[in-house]
Amino acid sequence: MGARSPPMPPFAAGRAPTPGPSRTREGRRRLPSHSGLMTIMERAARKAAPRLRRDFNEVQHLQVSRKGPADFVSMADQRAEQAIFEELSKSRPDWGFLMEERGEIAGDPNKPRFIVDPLDGTSNFLHGIPHFAISIAVEEPLASGKREITSALVYQPLTDESFWAEKGRGAWLQDARLRVSARRDLSEALIATGIPFLGHGDFTQWSRIFGAVAPEVAGIRRLGSAALDLAWVAAGRFDGYWESDLKPWDVAAGMLLVREAGGFVTDFRGADRAMERSEFLAGNDVLHSRLHKLVAGALRNA
Questions:
Q1: Which of 120, 150, 177 is the last residue of a domain?
Q2: How many C-beta atoms surround the C-beta of residue 129 within 10 A?
Q3: What is the CA angle 274-160-247, rounded to 5?
Q4: DSSP strand E in the chain: where?
Q5: How do the residues of the chain divide into helix, strand and coil, expressed in percent and rounded to 5?
Q6: Boundary-marking domain end, from 177, 194, 210
Q7: Among residues 165, 149, 141, 112, which one has the least CA distance to residue 248?
Q8: Nearest to 134 by CA among 53, 72, 215, 207
Q9: Same domain (yes/no): 80, 202
């Protein structure tokens, strides 16, 4: 992996994207555009990415400190968060932050805030497994007092894949429009999940859900990055996903990606309280409904 950051894809800021890349009269492909805010978010992610790639190549030399049972934070994680924070706060100095390492940084309560995970998949990173991502979301206050995610970016530094979405504008992978899987049969579905581990999650609950879902589907995968799991649901690589006991920075961007790609994200009860309950169930309309029945049945029969 080179030390230099890959160039940012061209775009025309301020224009709403079309349903897919269109063409000019001369036949040249016109790339989807995103807002100036998304430009800032992608710039911040790409600023942090080169050092992450270098550190990943020298992962055995990283200094790590322990912050909880089986939960390690690397210097790479901290450096990436600092780079992202500097870039975002420079452009939006009065916005707040919710970050994995620094926690909550107050801003103007009437302005949006950034939700940042500088390295989702830290355990993968520290073990030399090339599956991790930078996740950045924007959460805006509503007149009702609630907040909603309106912009999302999940960037994989090793593959240079930039999954992004803006509310009402769809979800994209670089310049390609994303849609959730069209599969309708659980027997053909590949489902992602996260498995509880030392100090994290409810293994008994997870085992019940696994016991209900596994016999009905084509396969279950645990890859170690919730942000990428949801991005892959949005891209149709996974057909569904369930996990619990996650933090907002793990899932904020991925949830918007799935919804803007035509999918659903709810809690295990099928309600729109996933973040509140820290329960996440995702898929297209049909598979989400069928997964919900399996999950709810497993929990009801506990």
A1: 177
A2: 15
A3: 20
A4: 22-23, 29-30, 64-66, 72-74, 96-99, 103-105, 113-120, 133-141, 147-156, 161-166, 170-173, 176-177, 190-193, 219-221, 240-244, 264-266, 279-283
A5: 35, 25, 40
A6: 177
A7: 149
A8: 53
A9: no
Q: Give a yes or no: residue 39 inside a domain.
A: yes
Number of domains the chain contains: 2
Where do we find the tokens 């489902």?
191
Q: Which residues contact 86 (CB under 8 A, 6 or more apart)?
A: none
Find where tokens 């990436």 sit. 80
**In a structure prediction context, what are the per-residue pLDDT tens digits for the chain, which is 302 residues long?**
444 444 443 333 333 333 445 444 544 545 566 789 999 999 999 999 999 999 888 876 655 655 543 345 578 899 999 999 999 999 999 999 999 889 999 999 999 999 999 999 998 988 889 999 999 999 999 988 899 999 999 999 999 999 999 999 999 999 999 999 999 999 999 999 999 998 888 999 999 999 999 999 999 999 999 999 999 999 999 999 999 999 999 999 999 999 999 999 999 999 999 999 999 999 999 999 999 999 999 999 86
Give 187-234 as a 3 state SS string.
HHCEEEECCCECCECCHHHHHHHHHHHHHHCCEEECCCCHHHHHHHHH
**Residue 280 · residue 192 · CB < 8 Å:** no
Which tokens in the block code for residue 231? 């991005």
Contacts of 141 (CB under 8 A, 6+ apart): 109, 110, 111, 112, 147
Chain length of the chain: 302
List the beta bridge partners of residue 147.
141
Q: Please answer whether residues 163 and 234 qualify as being in contact, where contact means their C-beta atoms are separated by less than 8 angstroms.
A: yes
157 shares a domain with 137: yes
Per the structure, the complete domain to which residue 200 belongs is given by 186-300
